[in-house]
Design brief:
The structure is a homodimer of 152-residue chains. Chain A is of the alpha+beta class and 152 residues long. Chain A has a single domain, classed as Hotdog Thioesterase (Thiol Ester Dehydrase, Chain A). Chain A is 34% helix and 34% strand. Chain A has a six-stranded antiparallel sheet with strand order 1-2-4-5-6-3, sandwiched between helices. In chain A, β1 and β2 form a beta hairpin. Chain A binds chain B through residues 12, 16-20, 22-23, 43-48, 52-55, 57-59, 61-62, 78-79, 82-90, 93, and chain B through 12, 16-20, 22-23, 43-48, 52-55, 57-59, 61-62, 78-79, 82-90, 93. β3 of chain A pairs antiparallel with β3 (81-90) of chain B, so a sheet runs across the interface.
């Protein structure tokens, strides 16, 4: 994670959302597949010694939020980015010691519309999908609706 | 929380799902409105000094899970209870220092069908709604689909 933007995002998480640090959530990388964050199984395990659903949801929520921070950064301070709703499917239990979630980039036309609305109206919404891979396919599929409100 | 069942549920959480302890999640009470759990804002705050969505989701997820533990207890050990999917709406930011979530009891006919399926098929599903109250109405509405699989 040598990218200064990702280092800054990690510092933001550590400073502003303490439970992410307790969960061991780390910004991992960004590439054409999207932003990836990871956390260890150990502190996030459940009664079955697989990953706790609440931790998986938090990891997906924050990976999407981080994606919004990077996207809206030139237009809006981080304070104005919130999640309004989400849905999640837990398709298989996760047993790997390190768990990674990747938030796919939104389609270009959706991003264009989002940035246009943010500039014109000072407020815009974007739907993002975050996936945690499993043994045979996705283990977790998360859809989140994020809203950005720029300061007046 | 003098009820021995609730004390046992708290011990189960503390022992089996360590991040719940890190979040300060406590079993609060049970009455005709359902099972209530709570957590402090402080460790669960976000960049806006309101409650982090990931923590709110975890609180709702585990309050529903606790409801399932109490419901399925006579039929099934806790190990077989998992969440399959959920959806959540964050309707207003939460600023109170202590945050409470209540999982409403499922309708009697749904519970009857659930217990019947669990006895007959060894597997059953139940939909539960958990709400975190806000200033003017619900601040968070969470719907979870939980599955119980009894041992063969």
């Amino acid at each position: 994670m040598a990218d200064p933007l990702l280092i800054e995002l990690q510092q933001l998480l550590d400073r502003e959302i303490p439970i992410c640090q307790a969960m061991g959530i780390q910004v991992h990388s960004i590439d054409e597949n999207g932003l990836t964050m990871q956390m260890p199984l150990d502190i996030n395990r459940n009664h079955q010694r697989t990953a706790f659903a609440g931790s998986l949801n938090a990891l997906c929520t924050i990976t999407g939020w981080g994606t919004m921070v990077l996207l809206a950064r030139p237009k809006c301070p981080t304070g104005g980015i919130v999640i309004r709703r989400s849905s999640i499917r837990y398709l298989e239990p996760i047993e790997s010691s390190s768990i990674r979630a990747t938030c796919a980039p939104a389609p270009i036309d959706a991003v264009d519309y989002f940035l246009e609305m943010l500039c014109e109206k000072g407020q815009a919404k974007l739907e993002l999908r975050t996936v945690i891979p499993g043994q045979k396919g996705p283990a977790v599929i998360f859809n989140g609706s994020y809203v950005v409100i720029s300061p007046k």
